[in-house]
Amino acid sequence: MEVYLDNSSTTRPYKEVVDAMADAMYNNFGNPSSLHRKGIEAEKLIKSAQIALAEAIKADPEEIFFTSGGTESDNLALRGAAAANRGRHIISTQVEHPAVLNTLESLKNSGFIIEYAPVNKNGEVDIERYKKLLRNDTILVTAMLVNNETGSIQPVEEMCRLLKSVNPNAVFHIDAVQALGKIPFTVSSTGADMISFSSHKIHGPKGVGGLYVRKGTRISPILFGGGQQKNLRPGTENVQGIYGFGIATKMATDNLCEKMNKVRFLRNSLKDGILREISDVSVNTPENSAPHILNVSFRGTRSEVLLHTLENDGIYVSSGSACSSHKKGPSYVMTAIGLDPQLIDGTLRFSLSEFNTEEEINYTLDRLKVAVSSLRKLMKFK
Amino acid sequence: MKTDLFLLKYGELALKGLNKPAFEKKLLNTIKRRLSKLGNFSVRCSQSTIYVEPLCEIDTEEVLSVLSKIFGIANICPVVKCEKDLDEIEKTAVELIREYRTTQKTFKVESKREDKSFPLNSPQLSREMGGRILKNINDLKVDVHNPEIMVNVEIRDKAYVYTRKIRGAGGMPLGSNGKAAILLSGGIDSPVAGWMICKRGVCLEAVHFHSHPYTSDRARDKVLDLARIMAKYCGRINVHVVPFTEIQLAIIEKCPENYLTVIMRRLMMRIAEKIAVANNAQALITGESIGQVASQTMESLVCTDSAVSLPVFRPCIGMDKEEIVTISKKIGAFETSIQPFEDCCTIFVPKHPKTKPTLAEIEEAELLLGDIEAMLDDAIARDEVVVCE
Domain containing A34: what range? Predict the structure, then answer.
């Protein structure tokens, strides 16, 4: 049996998306900037994706821009807003994705002052301490809606309101890469001026991202070229990728609540099963979380070994965050939520999708039990 | 400038006696084989010099990169041919100097006249060319003792002119000295050890121990990448990927914790020996260096050594890490060696490894494993051979 439980790293594309893309790639190969019919056909595909994304978050299609992925969307939002607004003070949180953290780090090197709001043990921003960081010269706040490692949901609406009460002209950005197609939210429910998206986290193709930019938001481009996408993100559009992203958005957000109720049920049954059948575990995903992520630490184990053991059984999970696999050292997110360092070593992230079944979850639980107990025996745990 | 010919000088091969023709033949074959990927070349040898003549369009640097990795070659000179005419020779020499000169300030001309009908003898030709070069390039001076640029002019069927002498890989031609099996771990040391032995003309067979799920498939792929880097020098290498998990688990379960590493290494050696014998290799190679880690103390090395009867070559044995790293960088293996794929083997590292084990203790501990031969044979039976070239 093959059980894919690493959907926060990437997802399997919908079959419909792949088929539509292949067809578009071969038949609608025109350049959307061309004046002739071929160009118009290609442009229509992009418009359809703008509409799909705009509908999903209740925005105007004109406010949707496409990029090469979540990382570029975050870079464009942060660097673009930093360059276009007067002031140097930026606030973020301790648990952001590296695409945000490292962009902020580079802004810091060019003279910006970056401050990070701490999080509580649930991975949620400590609002009182966040409030204290706000200044009337704060130009930008960036926070992720759903944390990629723990599934924690940030109180972005409150963060946005507090920011605007201190500086109405400041820009609020959210990274919704792990939120789209998982939890319901809209432009008005979050208050955001800019929102980053990624296609391959919602069963779309890799290499495509989106950025919502509220009309009137001050932002400069970070790439320069032939004027496409209102000059904010020039370069010939990745037509078939954007088209695929649009279809995936529509499919992932249709009947969102129903689909996610099923995912939540499966996730919870995995969690309850682990708590019931395996001792000395710590569930790091809080009650109030995105429905698809379960982060658990198994004391006295090593996550990579568990990962590879499960891999042998056809089960694919992640140790902490896949993006952290490039470097050694404990996950900063786990450190930020105050997890015991000994537990961090044995942390796995299970991330589900609408494709998972109850049978798969039972199988996973069964194999996980064996993997944990044999590794603990080997590592002479207790 | 377009290179018309590459002159290759032997290293110590030139000093050999009766075996020399056989060694030369191996060297020529290796050169032909490696160059065949770049196009058509004529390769011949005469009087301890190999002449490699491209018969098609080539990129000089690409050819040099291939040739400089072939053991048995001491130096490589890319030659430009021209008419045996003083003006032509001058033009070619000046152009070559201008093309490759960076900060050098001094030069010397050295001539050889094989065609005795040429009107100037060697010293005369050198003087004449020296003068002409000085006239062309103002800021260059002659230094006959320590020249930074050596301009060589040889009068043969044509005039051969060259200013560059690239260091070859040295050593002995591949295949001139049998075969050995290297234990390839994926670290920095073992590829260096393999390269050093291979440099002496020894062909390699490689053995890698894979402990999935305690090491990832990426770690295995990294070892294969390393073998491919080595293959640029060492020729084709068969890598035997031996599943080692069961043996490791048995050791952990049955043997005292502080002996784990030494016992594990002894069993690895025994497997490598069996693979070596089955593949006609006459020795084992490891990347060990005295005292680098607990399993490489003198006492531990004695224990590992006595697990096998084939000779064990450890060319890094007296080297410091820094010296090993220097070679690793030189052969282009370093960047791959340091890729940080999680090495879960650390869970198999005892907290207090025995640094001074005695053979008797170890052998006694090994008895707890039961039928070791059967375990080893079972692992070998499941090995996977990957050809790396």
Answer: 15-253
